[in-house]
What does this fold into?
Amino acid sequence: MSNLAEFREDFDILKSGDYVYFDNAATAQRPNQVLDAVTNFYKTANANPLRGLYDWSMAATEAYEDARKKVAGFIGGVGTEEIIFTRNTTESLNLVAYSYGMDNVGEGDEIVITVMEHHSNMLPWQMVAKKNHAKLVYLEPDEEGVISKEEYESKITDRTRIVALGHVSNVMGVTNPVKEIAEYAHKKGAVVVVDGAQSTPHMKVDVKELGADFFAFSGHKMMAPMGIGVLYGRKELLENMQPFLTGGEMIEYVTREDATYAELPHKFEAGTVNAGDAVGLAAAIDYLEKVGFDAIKEQEEKLTKRLMEGLAKLPYIKVYGSKDPSKHCGIVTFTMDGVHPHDMSSVLNDDHVCIRAGHHCAQPLMQFIGAGSTSRASVYFYNTEEEVDRFLEKLSLVREVMGYGA
Amino acid sequence: MELKQLYREIVNEHNMHPVHKGKMESADLVLRGVNPSCGDDITLQLKIDGDVITDAMYEGSGCAISQASVDMMADQIIGKKKDEAIKLAGTFMGMIKGEITDEESIEALDEAAALQDVAHMPARVKCAVLGWHTMQEMLEHPEKANE
It folds into this structure.
Protein backbone atom coordinates (compact mmCIF):
# COMPACT_ATOMS: atom_id res chain seq x y z
CA MET A 1 0.00 0.00 0.00
CA SER A 2 2.70 2.49 0.94
CA ASN A 3 4.30 1.36 -2.27
CA LEU A 4 1.22 2.39 -4.27
CA ALA A 5 1.09 5.73 -2.51
CA GLU A 6 4.60 6.30 -3.81
CA PHE A 7 3.51 5.53 -7.37
CA ARG A 8 0.72 8.05 -7.04
CA GLU A 9 3.40 10.70 -6.57
CA ASP A 10 4.39 10.17 -10.22
CA PHE A 11 1.13 11.65 -11.46
CA ASP A 12 1.23 15.44 -11.34
CA ILE A 13 -2.37 15.76 -12.44
CA LEU A 14 -3.58 13.72 -9.46
CA LYS A 15 -1.78 16.14 -7.16
CA SER A 16 -2.94 19.25 -8.99
CA GLY A 17 -6.14 19.78 -7.05
CA ASP A 18 -8.78 17.95 -5.10
CA TYR A 19 -10.29 16.06 -8.00
CA VAL A 20 -11.32 12.43 -7.63
CA TYR A 21 -10.70 10.86 -11.01
CA PHE A 22 -12.95 7.81 -11.45
CA ASP A 23 -13.10 7.65 -15.24
CA ASN A 24 -10.08 5.44 -15.73
CA ALA A 25 -11.89 3.08 -18.07
CA ALA A 26 -12.20 5.98 -20.51
CA THR A 27 -8.57 6.94 -20.24
CA ALA A 28 -5.93 6.52 -17.55
CA GLN A 29 -3.60 9.24 -16.30
CA ARG A 30 0.05 9.28 -17.35
CA PRO A 31 2.98 9.20 -14.95
CA ASN A 32 5.94 11.53 -15.37
CA GLN A 33 8.05 8.60 -16.58
CA VAL A 34 5.85 8.30 -19.68
CA LEU A 35 5.68 12.02 -20.33
CA ASP A 36 9.46 12.32 -19.91
CA ALA A 37 10.09 9.44 -22.30
CA VAL A 38 8.06 11.17 -25.02
CA THR A 39 9.73 14.51 -24.44
CA ASN A 40 13.11 12.87 -24.39
CA PHE A 41 12.47 11.22 -27.75
CA TYR A 42 11.70 14.56 -29.37
CA LYS A 43 14.62 16.22 -27.64
CA THR A 44 17.23 13.62 -28.52
CA ALA A 45 16.16 11.39 -31.38
CA ASN A 46 13.68 13.31 -33.47
CA ALA A 47 13.83 12.61 -37.17
CA ASN A 48 11.55 10.69 -39.50
CA PRO A 49 12.05 7.04 -38.57
CA LEU A 50 12.62 4.17 -40.98
CA ARG A 51 13.91 6.26 -43.86
CA GLY A 52 16.79 8.55 -43.08
CA LEU A 53 20.35 7.28 -43.31
CA TYR A 54 21.74 9.62 -40.70
CA ASP A 55 22.19 9.33 -36.96
CA TRP A 56 19.03 11.01 -35.74
CA SER A 57 16.76 9.05 -38.07
CA MET A 58 18.49 5.83 -37.13
CA ALA A 59 18.07 6.70 -33.46
CA ALA A 60 14.38 7.37 -34.07
CA THR A 61 14.04 4.07 -35.90
CA GLU A 62 15.74 2.25 -33.10
CA ALA A 63 13.53 3.84 -30.46
CA TYR A 64 10.44 2.99 -32.48
CA GLU A 65 11.47 -0.61 -33.12
CA ASP A 66 12.52 -1.06 -29.50
CA ALA A 67 9.01 0.00 -28.54
CA ARG A 68 7.65 -2.67 -30.87
CA LYS A 69 9.84 -5.30 -29.20
CA LYS A 70 8.57 -4.16 -25.81
CA VAL A 71 4.96 -4.53 -26.94
CA ALA A 72 5.62 -7.95 -28.46
CA GLY A 73 6.97 -9.10 -25.13
CA PHE A 74 4.18 -7.44 -23.17
CA ILE A 75 1.43 -9.50 -24.78
CA GLY A 76 3.17 -12.82 -24.29
CA GLY A 77 6.19 -12.89 -26.56
CA VAL A 78 5.02 -12.74 -30.16
CA GLY A 79 7.00 -11.83 -33.27
CA THR A 80 7.76 -8.15 -33.77
CA GLU A 81 6.44 -8.49 -37.33
CA GLU A 82 3.09 -9.35 -35.76
CA ILE A 83 2.84 -6.00 -33.96
CA ILE A 84 1.31 -3.14 -35.91
CA PHE A 85 1.17 0.31 -34.42
CA THR A 86 -2.11 2.15 -34.99
CA ARG A 87 -3.79 5.15 -33.41
CA ASN A 88 -6.00 3.19 -31.05
CA THR A 89 -8.19 0.11 -30.62
CA THR A 90 -10.80 1.48 -32.99
CA GLU A 91 -8.30 1.84 -35.78
CA SER A 92 -6.87 -1.61 -35.08
CA LEU A 93 -10.30 -3.21 -35.31
CA ASN A 94 -11.14 -1.30 -38.47
CA LEU A 95 -7.91 -2.55 -39.97
CA VAL A 96 -9.00 -6.13 -39.33
CA ALA A 97 -12.52 -5.48 -40.62
CA TYR A 98 -11.36 -3.86 -43.83
CA SER A 99 -8.27 -5.90 -44.62
CA TYR A 100 -9.41 -9.29 -43.32
CA GLY A 101 -13.17 -9.16 -42.93
CA MET A 102 -14.07 -7.69 -46.29
CA ASP A 103 -12.05 -10.33 -48.15
CA ASN A 104 -12.87 -13.37 -46.05
CA VAL A 105 -16.54 -13.08 -45.19
CA GLY A 106 -18.91 -13.98 -47.99
CA GLU A 107 -22.62 -13.96 -48.65
CA GLY A 108 -24.49 -16.02 -46.08
CA ASP A 109 -21.47 -16.28 -43.80
CA GLU A 110 -21.77 -15.28 -40.17
CA ILE A 111 -19.87 -12.91 -37.90
CA VAL A 112 -20.40 -13.47 -34.19
CA ILE A 113 -19.96 -10.65 -31.69
CA THR A 114 -21.38 -10.01 -28.21
CA VAL A 115 -24.05 -7.48 -27.31
CA MET A 116 -21.55 -6.10 -24.76
CA GLU A 117 -19.16 -4.83 -27.42
CA HIS A 118 -18.00 -1.24 -27.50
CA HIS A 119 -19.18 0.38 -30.73
CA SER A 120 -15.61 0.12 -32.00
CA ASN A 121 -15.91 -3.67 -32.08
CA MET A 122 -19.45 -3.58 -33.41
CA LEU A 123 -19.74 -1.01 -36.18
CA PRO A 124 -16.84 -2.38 -38.26
CA TRP A 125 -18.56 -5.78 -38.26
CA GLN A 126 -21.93 -4.28 -39.05
CA MET A 127 -20.25 -2.71 -42.05
CA VAL A 128 -18.64 -5.97 -43.22
CA ALA A 129 -21.91 -7.86 -42.75
CA LYS A 130 -23.91 -5.27 -44.69
CA LYS A 131 -21.47 -4.93 -47.58
CA ASN A 132 -20.84 -8.64 -47.97
CA HIS A 133 -24.40 -9.76 -47.22
CA ALA A 134 -23.32 -11.75 -44.21
CA LYS A 135 -25.22 -12.21 -40.98
CA LEU A 136 -24.23 -10.54 -37.71
CA VAL A 137 -25.01 -12.79 -34.75
CA TYR A 138 -25.02 -11.53 -31.15
CA LEU A 139 -23.97 -13.46 -28.06
CA GLU A 140 -25.94 -12.39 -25.01
CA PRO A 141 -24.77 -12.58 -21.40
CA ASP A 142 -26.78 -13.43 -18.30
CA GLU A 143 -27.54 -10.92 -15.50
CA GLU A 144 -24.01 -11.20 -14.15
CA GLY A 145 -22.56 -10.48 -17.58
CA VAL A 146 -21.47 -14.06 -18.23
CA ILE A 147 -21.69 -15.64 -21.69
CA SER A 148 -22.52 -19.28 -21.15
CA LYS A 149 -21.13 -22.26 -23.00
CA GLU A 150 -24.62 -23.05 -24.32
CA GLU A 151 -24.88 -19.53 -25.65
CA TYR A 152 -21.69 -19.53 -27.68
CA GLU A 153 -21.92 -23.16 -28.75
CA SER A 154 -25.38 -22.56 -30.13
CA LYS A 155 -24.43 -19.41 -32.03
CA ILE A 156 -20.96 -20.17 -33.39
CA THR A 157 -21.55 -22.46 -36.37
CA ASP A 158 -19.82 -23.82 -39.45
CA ARG A 159 -20.87 -20.63 -41.22
CA THR A 160 -19.06 -18.44 -38.68
CA ARG A 161 -16.02 -16.80 -40.23
CA ILE A 162 -15.17 -14.31 -37.49
CA VAL A 163 -15.81 -14.21 -33.75
CA ALA A 164 -15.08 -10.73 -32.37
CA LEU A 165 -15.37 -10.03 -28.68
CA GLY A 166 -14.10 -7.81 -25.91
CA HIS A 167 -11.70 -9.31 -23.42
CA VAL A 168 -13.22 -7.16 -20.67
CA SER A 169 -16.52 -5.29 -21.07
CA ASN A 170 -16.21 -1.53 -20.67
CA VAL A 171 -19.64 -1.42 -19.04
CA MET A 172 -20.03 -4.62 -17.03
CA GLY A 173 -16.34 -4.97 -16.23
CA VAL A 174 -16.71 -8.71 -16.71
CA THR A 175 -13.87 -10.74 -18.21
CA ASN A 176 -15.24 -12.85 -21.04
CA PRO A 177 -14.23 -16.52 -21.35
CA VAL A 178 -12.16 -15.67 -24.41
CA LYS A 179 -9.99 -18.77 -24.26
CA GLU A 180 -12.94 -21.16 -24.20
CA ILE A 181 -14.81 -19.27 -26.89
CA ALA A 182 -11.69 -19.08 -29.06
CA GLU A 183 -11.13 -22.81 -28.75
CA TYR A 184 -14.65 -23.52 -29.90
CA ALA A 185 -14.49 -20.90 -32.66
CA HIS A 186 -11.27 -22.40 -34.01
CA LYS A 187 -12.89 -25.83 -34.11
CA LYS A 188 -15.55 -24.30 -36.31
CA GLY A 189 -12.92 -22.70 -38.52
CA ALA A 190 -13.50 -19.10 -37.44
CA VAL A 191 -10.91 -16.43 -36.77
CA VAL A 192 -10.98 -14.79 -33.34
CA VAL A 193 -10.64 -11.02 -32.91
CA VAL A 194 -10.21 -9.74 -29.36
CA ASP A 195 -10.73 -6.16 -28.20
CA GLY A 196 -8.22 -5.82 -25.37
CA ALA A 197 -8.75 -2.13 -24.64
CA GLN A 198 -10.09 -2.80 -21.14
CA SER A 199 -7.93 -5.78 -20.22
CA THR A 200 -4.38 -4.67 -20.98
CA PRO A 201 -4.32 -2.01 -18.22
CA HIS A 202 -5.37 -4.55 -15.60
CA MET A 203 -4.00 -8.02 -16.28
CA LYS A 204 -1.15 -9.92 -17.83
CA VAL A 205 -2.19 -10.85 -21.34
CA ASP A 206 -0.82 -13.72 -23.40
CA VAL A 207 -2.47 -13.56 -26.80
CA LYS A 208 -1.45 -17.09 -27.77
CA GLU A 209 -2.70 -18.53 -24.52
CA LEU A 210 -5.96 -16.67 -25.11
CA GLY A 211 -6.26 -18.01 -28.63
CA ALA A 212 -6.57 -14.57 -30.19
CA ASP A 213 -5.81 -14.42 -33.91
CA PHE A 214 -6.05 -10.66 -33.68
CA PHE A 215 -5.75 -8.61 -30.50
CA ALA A 216 -6.33 -4.86 -30.41
CA PHE A 217 -5.60 -2.36 -27.65
CA SER A 218 -5.02 1.32 -26.94
CA GLY A 219 -2.06 2.91 -25.24
CA HIS A 220 -4.02 5.67 -23.54
CA LYS A 221 -5.98 3.35 -21.28
CA MET A 222 -2.74 1.97 -19.88
CA MET A 223 -1.04 5.28 -19.16
CA ALA A 224 0.59 5.80 -22.57
CA PRO A 225 -0.19 8.92 -24.62
CA MET A 226 -3.36 9.23 -26.64
CA GLY A 227 -2.90 8.38 -30.30
CA ILE A 228 -0.90 5.19 -30.08
CA GLY A 229 -2.57 1.81 -30.33
CA VAL A 230 -1.65 -1.72 -31.25
CA LEU A 231 -2.89 -4.51 -33.41
CA TYR A 232 -1.42 -7.94 -32.91
CA GLY A 233 -2.16 -10.30 -35.79
CA ARG A 234 -1.05 -13.84 -36.43
CA LYS A 235 1.67 -13.67 -39.09
CA GLU A 236 0.07 -16.08 -41.57
CA LEU A 237 -3.10 -14.00 -41.50
CA LEU A 238 -1.35 -10.64 -41.80
CA GLU A 239 0.77 -11.86 -44.68
CA ASN A 240 -2.26 -12.72 -46.75
CA MET A 241 -4.09 -9.48 -46.08
CA GLN A 242 -4.21 -6.41 -48.27
CA PRO A 243 -2.96 -3.13 -46.77
CA PHE A 244 -5.49 -0.99 -44.93
CA LEU A 245 -3.96 2.37 -45.79
CA THR A 246 -1.52 2.92 -48.62
CA GLY A 247 1.10 5.56 -49.23
CA GLY A 248 4.53 6.31 -47.85
CA GLU A 249 6.68 3.96 -45.79
CA MET A 250 4.66 0.84 -46.62
CA ILE A 251 6.04 0.07 -50.06
CA GLU A 252 8.80 -1.98 -51.55
CA TYR A 253 8.76 -0.86 -55.16
CA VAL A 254 6.45 1.54 -56.95
CA THR A 255 5.90 2.08 -60.68
CA ARG A 256 3.37 4.33 -62.38
CA GLU A 257 0.81 1.54 -62.45
CA ASP A 258 1.59 -0.70 -59.55
CA ALA A 259 3.37 -1.23 -56.26
CA THR A 260 4.67 -4.03 -54.16
CA TYR A 261 4.29 -3.70 -50.46
CA ALA A 262 6.83 -3.70 -47.70
CA GLU A 263 7.28 -6.65 -45.40
CA LEU A 264 5.34 -6.99 -42.18
CA PRO A 265 4.67 -5.03 -40.10
CA HIS A 266 5.42 -1.98 -42.25
CA LYS A 267 2.87 -3.05 -44.85
CA PHE A 268 0.23 -1.87 -42.39
CA GLU A 269 1.91 1.32 -41.23
CA ALA A 270 1.46 3.82 -44.03
CA GLY A 271 2.73 7.34 -43.56
CA THR A 272 5.06 8.79 -40.96
CA VAL A 273 4.63 6.71 -37.83
CA ASN A 274 3.87 7.92 -34.33
CA ALA A 275 7.29 7.09 -32.94
CA GLY A 276 7.14 9.54 -30.05
CA ASP A 277 4.02 7.97 -28.60
CA ALA A 278 5.25 4.45 -29.33
CA VAL A 279 8.19 5.32 -27.09
CA GLY A 280 5.66 6.57 -24.55
CA LEU A 281 3.83 3.25 -24.78
CA ALA A 282 7.05 1.37 -24.11
CA ALA A 283 7.62 3.55 -21.05
CA ALA A 284 4.06 2.85 -19.90
CA ILE A 285 4.70 -0.88 -20.20
CA ASP A 286 7.85 -0.50 -18.11
CA TYR A 287 5.86 1.43 -15.57
CA LEU A 288 3.02 -1.11 -15.47
CA GLU A 289 5.51 -3.89 -14.93
CA LYS A 290 7.21 -1.93 -12.18
CA VAL A 291 3.92 -1.47 -10.36
CA GLY A 292 3.07 -5.10 -11.09
CA PHE A 293 -0.22 -6.63 -12.13
CA ASP A 294 -0.60 -8.40 -8.78
CA ALA A 295 -0.48 -5.11 -6.90
CA ILE A 296 -2.75 -3.46 -9.46
CA LYS A 297 -5.34 -6.22 -9.13
CA GLU A 298 -5.18 -6.22 -5.36
CA GLN A 299 -5.72 -2.48 -5.09
CA GLU A 300 -8.49 -2.42 -7.70
CA GLU A 301 -10.32 -5.21 -5.91
CA LYS A 302 -10.00 -3.49 -2.58
CA LEU A 303 -11.35 -0.23 -3.99
CA THR A 304 -14.11 -1.91 -5.99
CA LYS A 305 -15.26 -3.86 -2.95
CA ARG A 306 -15.44 -0.70 -0.86
CA LEU A 307 -17.22 1.10 -3.66
CA MET A 308 -19.80 -1.63 -4.22
CA GLU A 309 -20.42 -2.05 -0.49
CA GLY A 310 -21.02 1.68 -0.23
CA LEU A 311 -23.37 1.70 -3.20
CA ALA A 312 -25.31 -1.25 -1.74
CA LYS A 313 -26.19 0.95 1.25
CA LEU A 314 -27.97 3.44 -1.01
CA PRO A 315 -31.40 1.91 -1.74
CA TYR A 316 -31.99 4.04 -4.83
CA ILE A 317 -28.85 2.78 -6.60
CA LYS A 318 -28.81 -0.20 -8.97
CA VAL A 319 -25.47 -1.74 -9.87
CA TYR A 320 -25.04 -3.73 -13.09
CA GLY A 321 -22.99 -6.88 -13.63
CA SER A 322 -21.51 -9.34 -11.18
CA LYS A 323 -22.13 -9.13 -7.44
CA ASP A 324 -18.48 -10.13 -6.98
CA PRO A 325 -16.18 -7.06 -6.86
CA SER A 326 -13.25 -9.11 -8.11
CA LYS A 327 -15.09 -9.61 -11.42
CA HIS A 328 -15.34 -5.93 -12.33
CA CYS A 329 -11.84 -4.93 -13.42
CA GLY A 330 -12.35 -1.73 -11.44
CA ILE A 331 -15.48 -0.82 -13.42
CA VAL A 332 -18.78 -0.22 -11.61
CA THR A 333 -21.77 0.80 -13.71
CA PHE A 334 -24.91 1.94 -11.95
CA THR A 335 -28.08 4.02 -12.09
CA MET A 336 -29.84 6.19 -9.54
CA ASP A 337 -33.65 6.17 -9.36
CA GLY A 338 -35.15 9.33 -10.77
CA VAL A 339 -31.84 10.98 -11.62
CA HIS A 340 -30.44 11.04 -15.12
CA PRO A 341 -26.75 10.06 -15.28
CA HIS A 342 -25.84 13.37 -16.90
CA ASP A 343 -27.35 15.36 -14.08
CA MET A 344 -25.58 13.08 -11.60
CA SER A 345 -22.26 13.56 -13.34
CA SER A 346 -22.68 17.35 -13.49
CA VAL A 347 -23.60 17.56 -9.81
CA LEU A 348 -20.63 15.37 -8.88
CA ASN A 349 -18.35 17.50 -11.02
CA ASP A 350 -19.43 20.45 -8.94
CA ASP A 351 -17.82 18.56 -6.06
CA HIS A 352 -14.77 17.68 -8.17
CA VAL A 353 -15.67 14.03 -8.64
CA CYS A 354 -15.19 12.77 -12.21
CA ILE A 355 -17.29 9.87 -13.42
CA ARG A 356 -18.60 8.88 -16.82
CA ALA A 357 -22.26 9.17 -17.71
CA GLY A 358 -24.05 8.12 -20.85
CA HIS A 359 -24.23 5.06 -23.02
CA HIS A 360 -20.48 4.30 -22.88
CA CYS A 361 -20.35 3.70 -26.64
CA ALA A 362 -22.43 0.58 -26.09
CA GLN A 363 -25.98 1.49 -27.01
CA PRO A 364 -27.19 -2.04 -27.83
CA LEU A 365 -25.97 -3.15 -24.40
CA MET A 366 -27.87 -0.30 -22.74
CA GLN A 367 -31.01 -1.48 -24.54
CA PHE A 368 -30.25 -5.06 -23.52
CA ILE A 369 -29.92 -4.24 -19.83
CA GLY A 370 -32.91 -1.90 -20.06
CA ALA A 371 -31.20 1.36 -19.19
CA GLY A 372 -31.26 4.42 -21.42
CA SER A 373 -27.93 5.43 -20.07
CA THR A 374 -25.91 4.74 -16.95
CA SER A 375 -23.20 6.17 -14.74
CA ARG A 376 -19.84 4.50 -14.47
CA ALA A 377 -17.16 4.85 -11.84
CA SER A 378 -13.91 3.15 -12.76
CA VAL A 379 -10.87 2.98 -10.50
CA TYR A 380 -7.21 2.30 -11.13
CA PHE A 381 -4.36 1.36 -8.84
CA TYR A 382 -3.44 4.98 -8.05
CA ASN A 383 -6.88 5.69 -6.61
CA THR A 384 -7.33 5.51 -2.85
CA GLU A 385 -9.88 4.39 -0.28
CA GLU A 386 -10.27 8.02 0.79
CA GLU A 387 -11.30 8.85 -2.75
CA VAL A 388 -13.87 6.06 -2.74
CA ASP A 389 -15.29 7.41 0.50
CA ARG A 390 -15.45 10.92 -0.87
CA PHE A 391 -17.16 9.69 -4.01
CA LEU A 392 -19.75 7.82 -1.94
CA GLU A 393 -20.35 10.79 0.32
CA LYS A 394 -20.87 13.18 -2.59
CA LEU A 395 -23.01 10.65 -4.43
CA SER A 396 -25.30 10.33 -1.42
CA LEU A 397 -26.04 14.06 -1.68
CA VAL A 398 -27.04 14.03 -5.34
CA ARG A 399 -30.68 13.06 -4.91
CA GLU A 400 -31.30 15.96 -2.57
CA VAL A 401 -29.88 18.39 -5.14
CA MET A 402 -32.16 16.86 -7.74
CA GLY A 403 -35.24 17.55 -5.68
CA TYR A 404 -35.81 14.33 -3.76
CA GLY A 405 -36.36 14.33 -0.03
CA ALA A 406 -34.40 16.90 1.98
CA MET B 1 -26.23 30.90 -10.71
CA GLU B 2 -24.21 27.90 -9.68
CA LEU B 3 -25.21 24.45 -10.80
CA LYS B 4 -26.84 23.10 -7.66
CA GLN B 5 -28.83 26.28 -7.18
CA LEU B 6 -29.97 26.11 -10.79
CA TYR B 7 -31.31 22.61 -10.20
CA ARG B 8 -32.93 23.44 -6.91
CA GLU B 9 -34.57 26.70 -7.93
CA ILE B 10 -35.46 26.20 -11.57
CA VAL B 11 -34.83 22.86 -13.20
CA ASN B 12 -36.23 20.39 -10.68
CA GLU B 13 -39.69 21.86 -10.63
CA HIS B 14 -40.11 21.57 -14.41
CA ASN B 15 -38.41 18.20 -14.53
CA MET B 16 -40.44 16.59 -11.78
CA HIS B 17 -43.74 18.36 -12.40
CA PRO B 18 -43.82 19.19 -16.09
CA VAL B 19 -46.77 21.14 -17.36
CA HIS B 20 -46.59 20.33 -21.04
CA LYS B 21 -45.44 16.72 -21.07
CA GLY B 22 -47.66 14.18 -22.76
CA LYS B 23 -49.15 13.02 -26.01
CA MET B 24 -51.04 15.61 -28.05
CA GLU B 25 -54.13 14.58 -29.94
CA SER B 26 -54.09 15.53 -33.63
CA ALA B 27 -50.93 17.62 -33.58
CA ASP B 28 -50.14 19.62 -36.70
CA LEU B 29 -46.38 19.30 -36.46
CA VAL B 30 -44.41 16.50 -34.78
CA LEU B 31 -40.63 16.22 -34.72
CA ARG B 32 -38.23 14.09 -32.74
CA GLY B 33 -35.03 15.65 -31.45
CA VAL B 34 -32.16 13.55 -30.17
CA ASN B 35 -28.77 14.25 -28.64
CA PRO B 36 -27.08 11.10 -29.89
CA SER B 37 -24.06 11.42 -27.65
CA CYS B 38 -26.04 11.58 -24.43
CA GLY B 39 -29.40 10.06 -25.22
CA ASP B 40 -31.71 13.02 -24.60
CA ASP B 41 -34.68 12.18 -26.75
CA ILE B 42 -37.80 14.32 -27.14
CA THR B 43 -40.72 14.40 -29.51
CA LEU B 44 -42.13 17.89 -29.80
CA GLN B 45 -45.75 18.34 -30.89
CA LEU B 46 -47.27 21.64 -31.97
CA LYS B 47 -50.75 22.74 -32.83
CA ILE B 48 -50.80 25.57 -35.33
CA ASP B 49 -53.67 27.85 -36.23
CA GLY B 50 -52.76 29.98 -39.22
CA ASP B 51 -49.61 31.69 -38.07
CA VAL B 52 -50.00 31.05 -34.36
CA ILE B 53 -48.76 28.23 -32.15
CA THR B 54 -51.84 27.39 -30.13
CA ASP B 55 -50.40 24.49 -28.15
CA ALA B 56 -47.07 22.76 -27.53
CA MET B 57 -46.41 19.43 -25.82
CA TYR B 58 -43.55 16.98 -25.69
CA GLU B 59 -42.84 13.37 -24.87
CA GLY B 60 -39.51 11.74 -24.23
CA SER B 61 -36.76 11.23 -21.75
CA GLY B 62 -33.41 12.68 -20.91
CA CYS B 63 -31.54 14.63 -18.30
CA ALA B 64 -33.33 17.14 -16.12
CA ILE B 65 -31.90 20.14 -17.98
CA SER B 66 -33.13 18.92 -21.36
CA GLN B 67 -36.59 18.11 -20.04
CA ALA B 68 -36.99 21.28 -17.99
CA SER B 69 -35.76 23.41 -20.86
CA VAL B 70 -38.34 22.06 -23.28
CA ASP B 71 -41.10 22.44 -20.68
CA MET B 72 -40.16 26.08 -20.13
CA MET B 73 -39.95 26.60 -23.86
CA ALA B 74 -43.50 25.33 -24.32
CA ASP B 75 -44.65 27.93 -21.78
CA GLN B 76 -43.01 30.65 -23.82
CA ILE B 77 -44.13 29.76 -27.32
CA ILE B 78 -47.81 28.96 -26.79
CA GLY B 79 -49.78 31.84 -28.25
CA LYS B 80 -46.80 33.22 -30.15
CA LYS B 81 -46.59 33.61 -33.90
CA LYS B 82 -44.29 31.16 -35.67
CA ASP B 83 -41.75 33.82 -36.62
CA GLU B 84 -41.71 35.14 -33.06
CA ALA B 85 -41.02 31.64 -31.78
CA ILE B 86 -38.19 31.19 -34.27
CA LYS B 87 -36.75 34.51 -33.13
CA LEU B 88 -36.96 33.44 -29.49
CA ALA B 89 -35.14 30.21 -30.37
CA GLY B 90 -32.36 32.30 -31.87
CA THR B 91 -32.20 34.40 -28.71
CA PHE B 92 -32.15 31.34 -26.45
CA MET B 93 -29.41 29.58 -28.40
CA GLY B 94 -27.43 32.80 -28.61
CA MET B 95 -27.75 33.19 -24.84
CA ILE B 96 -26.66 29.62 -24.15
CA LYS B 97 -23.69 30.00 -26.45
CA GLY B 98 -22.76 33.17 -24.61
CA GLU B 99 -23.18 35.28 -27.76
CA ILE B 100 -26.21 37.20 -26.55
CA THR B 101 -25.76 38.77 -23.13
CA ASP B 102 -27.75 42.02 -23.15
CA GLU B 103 -30.55 41.97 -20.62
CA GLU B 104 -33.21 43.33 -22.92
CA SER B 105 -32.93 40.47 -25.41
CA ILE B 106 -32.72 37.89 -22.69
CA GLU B 107 -35.75 39.22 -20.84
CA ALA B 108 -37.87 38.22 -23.82
CA LEU B 109 -37.23 34.61 -22.84
CA ASP B 110 -38.97 35.14 -19.52
CA GLU B 111 -38.43 32.11 -17.26
CA ALA B 112 -36.28 30.32 -19.83
CA ALA B 113 -33.71 33.06 -19.25
CA ALA B 114 -32.93 31.30 -15.98
CA LEU B 115 -30.87 28.82 -17.95
CA GLN B 116 -28.39 31.55 -18.91
CA ASP B 117 -25.70 30.09 -16.70
CA VAL B 118 -25.67 26.90 -18.73
CA ALA B 119 -23.46 29.02 -20.97
CA HIS B 120 -20.72 28.30 -18.43
CA MET B 121 -21.34 24.54 -18.54
CA PRO B 122 -20.19 23.51 -22.00
CA ALA B 123 -21.07 19.86 -21.42
CA ARG B 124 -24.72 20.79 -20.87
CA VAL B 125 -25.29 23.23 -23.73
CA LYS B 126 -26.70 20.53 -26.00
CA CYS B 127 -29.17 19.49 -23.31
CA ALA B 128 -30.50 23.01 -22.85
CA VAL B 129 -30.95 23.79 -26.54
CA LEU B 130 -32.47 20.47 -27.69
CA GLY B 131 -36.10 21.59 -27.41
CA TRP B 132 -35.47 25.01 -28.94
CA HIS B 133 -33.46 23.56 -31.77
CA THR B 134 -36.19 21.01 -32.52
CA MET B 135 -38.87 23.70 -32.47
CA GLN B 136 -36.92 25.93 -34.82
CA GLU B 137 -36.27 23.02 -37.16
CA MET B 138 -39.92 22.01 -37.38
CA LEU B 139 -41.16 25.54 -38.00
CA GLU B 140 -38.55 26.30 -40.63
CA HIS B 141 -38.85 22.90 -42.31
CA PRO B 142 -42.43 21.77 -41.73
CA GLU B 143 -41.97 19.09 -44.40
CA LYS B 144 -39.80 17.20 -41.88
CA ALA B 145 -42.43 17.49 -39.20
CA ASN B 146 -45.58 16.17 -40.78
CA GLU B 147 -46.80 13.08 -39.07
